[in-house]
């Protein structure tokens, strides 16, 4: 920030000083113009980049992650991840079932105390699944049951009021996803039409209860073999604020070939823009890569390409790294070593992924 001092010279030196001031002033203007062209954004430009009411960053993208954790150690695990990656996460991703939000088990409790602790300095993406992880087969909720209001009093209303209270106390919004990757959950949970009805019912129930601090996020696998399902399971523009998809470089996991970051993202991105929405903000709600033991530097190379590709994907406003081992042989998608961590650290330091949060 430039400091200005006012001079009030007298006598015969006045014209010389004014002339010098004019020259210096012109030089300062030129230097500031050069700085603004290539350096940090001006305050007015930063103001233009503030997030929208739907938490969309107009000038770049948020960076977030799913960090493996138990309920009690979420904050510690998040901070340890941030230490490795060299920055605070914009978004922290957590998962919940639809069990009764009571007793010692809190899998069904949205916005746990631990999440609220983490949410003081970060945004939260809450994935809410129509499952009861500890329940019997008979206790598993179906989309038809949800759409008919069968879980309103015991589950949905309880969570809606909890989120509303959080917003009223903190002024903060949350991203909420209902049944991410729903394209893999039919027919077990119901038909595509029943999913749409269930999604809309939850959305409308929240609105009836006055919940206005939810950003509704619809998340699919992004696997284009399910393209027909995506079109049938889209709840509609009135019900969706963001669209997310989860695409990886699985490599040997699932017997896949090695794919670059661009190869994992661009085809699904283009399909969504052509068939679902041309303007909704998009989220890479899970992205990541397996390692290649035969080429130790390959994972680092993969992450190094992330910022350049992100900038080419129209409307992608958030990217969440998946740092976890999936079930199955060769399915470890976590960051494998120091070189890969250093590469990811460099990638997420890009200004495009460092947006003003308010």
Order of strands side by side in the largest beta sheet?
1-2-3-4-5-6-7-8
Number of strands: 8
Mean pLDDT: 87
Radius of gyration: 24 Å
Q: What count of helical segments does DSSP give?
A: 12
Q: What fraction of residues sit in β-strands?
A: 5-15%
Order of helices and strands: HHEHEHEHHEHEHEHEHHEH
Give the biggest beta sheet. 8 strands, parallel, barrel
Helix-residue proportion = 25-40%
So what's the overall shape? globular
- The termini sit apart by 21 Å
Oligomer: single chain
- Class from helix and strand fractions: alpha/beta
Low-confidence stretches: 1-44
SSE topology sketch:
Blueprint: H1 14-38, H2 43-48, E1 62-66, H3 74-85, E2 91-96, H4 113-118, E3 123-128, H5 143-147, H6 152-170, E4 174-178, H7 192-208, E5 214-220, H8 227-233, E6 242-249, H9 261-275, E7 282-289, H10 298-304, H11 306-312, E8 316-322, H12 338-347
Parallel strand pairs: 1-2, 1-8, 2-3, 3-4, 4-5, 5-6, 6-7, 7-8
């Amino acid at each position: 920030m430039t400091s200005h001092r006012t001079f009030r010279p007298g006598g015969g030196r006045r014209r010389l000083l004014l002339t010098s001031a004019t020259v210096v002033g012109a030089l300062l203007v030129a230097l500031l113009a050069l700085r603004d062209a290539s350096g940090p954004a001006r305050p007015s430009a930063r103001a233009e980049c503030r997030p929208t009411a739907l938490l969309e960053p107009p000038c770049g993208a948020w960076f977030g992650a799913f960090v493996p954790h138990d309920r009690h150690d979420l904050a510690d695990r998040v901070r340890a991840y941030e230490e490795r990656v060299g920055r605070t996460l914009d978004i922290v991703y957590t998962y919940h079932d639809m069990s009764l939000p009571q007793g010692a088990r809190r899998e069904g409790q949205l916005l746990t105390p631990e999440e609220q602790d983490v949410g003081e300095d970060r945004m939260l993406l809450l994935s809410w699944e129509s499952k009861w992880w500890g329940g019997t087969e008979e206790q598993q909720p179906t989309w038809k049951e949800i759409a008919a209001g069968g879980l309103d009093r015991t589950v949905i209303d309880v969570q809606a009021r909890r989120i509303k209270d959080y917003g009223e106390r903190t002024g903060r919004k949350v991203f909420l996803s209902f049944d991410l990757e729903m394209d893999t959950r039919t027919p077990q949970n119901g038909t595509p039409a029943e999913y749409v009805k269930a999604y809309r019912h939850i959305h409308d129930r929240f609105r009836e209860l006055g919940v206005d601090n939810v950003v509704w996020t619809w998340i699919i696998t992004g696997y284009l073999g399910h393209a027909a399902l995506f079109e049938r399971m889209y709840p509609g523009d009135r019900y969706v604020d963001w669209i997310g998809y989860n695409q990886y470089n699985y490599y040997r996991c699932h017997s896949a070939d090695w794919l670059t970051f661009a190869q994992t993202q661009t085809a699904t991105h283009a399909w969504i823009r052509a068939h679902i929405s041309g303007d909704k903000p998009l989220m890479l709600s899970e992205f990541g890569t397996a390692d290649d033991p035969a080429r130790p530097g390959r994972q680092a190379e993969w992450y190094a390409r992330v910022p350049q590709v992100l900038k080419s994907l129209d409307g992608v406003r958030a990217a969440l790294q998946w740092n976890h081992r999936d079930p199955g042989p060769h399915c470890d998608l976590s960051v494998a070593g120091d070189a890969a961590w250093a590469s990811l650290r460099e990638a997420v330091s890009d200004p495009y992924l460092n947006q003003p949060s308010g």
